[in-house]
Amino acid sequence: MKVLIVFAHPESKSFNAALKNTAVSTLTETGHEVKVSDLYEIGWNFHVDRTNFTELKDNDYFKPQSEQPLGKYIQKIKDEQAKVTWCDMIIFQFPMYWYSMPSILKSWVDIVFSAGFAYGGEYGYFEKAGFAGKKALICTTTGGPEFFYTEKGRSGNYKRILYPIIYGMFVFTGMESYEPQVFFGPAHGTDESRKEMLKKYSDYLKDIDNQKFIPFNKSDKFEGQMMTLKENEKTNIEIIGDEK
Amino acid sequence: MKVLIVFAHPESKSFNAALKNTAVSTLTETGHEVKVSDLYEIGWNFHVDRTNFTELKDNDYFKPQSEQPLGKYIQKIKDEQAKVTWCDMIIFQFPMYWYSMPSILKSWVDIVFSAGFAYGGEYGYFEKAGFAGKKALICTTTGGPEFFYTEKGRSGNYKRILYPIIYGMFVFTGMESYEPQVFFGPAHGTDESRKEMLKKYSDYLKDIDNQKFIPFNKSDKFEGQMMTLKENEKTNIEIIGDEK
């Protein structure tokens, strides 16, 4: 596969960087092609606004959903979209900040996954969206220990915390999502425990062609004009919350 | 109350701006004091990195959690933290981007809700965190219609989508969270339907002193060293998913 790793940690000597480097070497060694977007290194410094574009259809009223499909992006944004087009699989590598991704990665998604490219326009949503056929993986780290992120732990199940990313960013744009690879509290571990985490991640990636996707409902499980879930089907939150 | 509205929409003539303006006028007229942080207007343009600080404890290895408690922030960040200290209530006003907040607001949270200020250090977490006693409200808009964001709709229950914000940002830092005020698909509505939405929001805010908080479990519902939920208590995801 062609794999794009989007890396979002401000320190190149961090454990997140080690996870990113592990992915690069493991995937390369097992015959995959890898590109990395190191967002801090490339100086990704945008939010959704007028400066994303070289020209605007409407200078008086800025509406991102109307401007994005016209594709009049500055070069730095086009470069990132070209990498997404190129790849078969995206990996988001980030430390969990506030039960979500760091703002630098969020801004990459807000801008690069644009209307008319990731969804909408000639594409639709979910299976009909722009990234249908691609695969996506979260690899993330937490500050707290694993029990904190269980169903009965203080934060609740980590997979439900990651639902807006997994379902909202990956599945919504047509991608299949692997089970997120979460490494709990590496900063509180030892060199030995961190090495084990890297090995675990490497082993997971070595077998990437056989890893399972989260079995979200496809369109055929919904019915009617309002696309309501059919009787007796599991809801998204039940599906993502299920233990492996 | 002293209310801080953090506003994150790139167009000052947008419906989100109208919601923000409605909050300013309604709250002011009913005797509250209001400050607004208009993130696009103030040119909020940061991510968590070395440039947040005037000096670093460790120049060779950048670890945000170690630098933040020292408080050596640039003035623009200190100004925002002063507004948070000042207020009794925070309102996040934003359009939903990717089942979450726009990156400009995420970066405000990543940086302003810092270790040693929002949580940790002399504070703890949840009821013992830095913002204990404060209240918080999400006011947001969606692109899609309401049925899309129900339990059996294609996206799932909107309150579960907003869980990382409500629980991860508000409750984690000690704040009580009101029920989120979500306005579905205003762009697909009419002038009349949008006026009704503004009136609904204004009516909600007029009665803010009597509005209910989401009844998350306090620490006394957890037990043991690992703070596991006691028998027969509802999990967070059940609590937030409950209909009003």
Structure description:
Two copies of one chain form a homodimer. Chain A is α/β, with parallel strands linked by helices and 244 residues long. Chain A has one domain (2-217): Flavodoxin domain (Rossmann fold). The longest helix of chain A is centred in the last third of the chain and has 16 residues, at 191-206. The first copy, chain A, starts with a strand and ends with a helix. The mean pLDDT of chain A is 96. Chain A is 31% helix and 14% strand. In chain A, strands 1, 2, 3, 4, 5 and 6 form a six-stranded parallel beta sheet that branches. In chain A, helix 1 packs parallel to helix 7. Chain A has helices at residues 15-29, 64-67, 75-86, 103-112, 158-161, 163-171, 191-206, 236-241; strands at 2-7, 33-38, 89-95, 135-141, 176-177, 181-183, 222-223, 228-229. Chains A and B meet through helix 4, helix 6, strand 8 and helix 8 of A and helix 4, helix 6, strand 8 and helix 8 of B. Chains A, B: It comes from Anaeramoeba flamelloides. Chains A, B: This is Nad p h oxidoreductase-related. Chains A, B: Keywords: Oxidoreductase. Chains A, B: It holds the Pfam family Flavodoxin_2. Chains A, B: Belongs to the NAD(P)H dehydrogenase (quinone) family.
Layout of secondary structure:
2 copies of one chain form a homodimer.
Chain A: E1 2-7, H1 15-29, E2 33-38, H2 64-67, H3 75-86, E3 89-95, H4 103-112, E4 135-141, H5 158-161, H6 163-171, E5 176-177, E6 181-183, H7 191-206, E7 222-223, E8 228-229, H8 236-241
Parallel strand pairs in A: 1-2, 1-3, 3-4, 4-5, 4-6
Antiparallel strand pairs in A: 7-8
Helix pairs in contact in A: 1-7
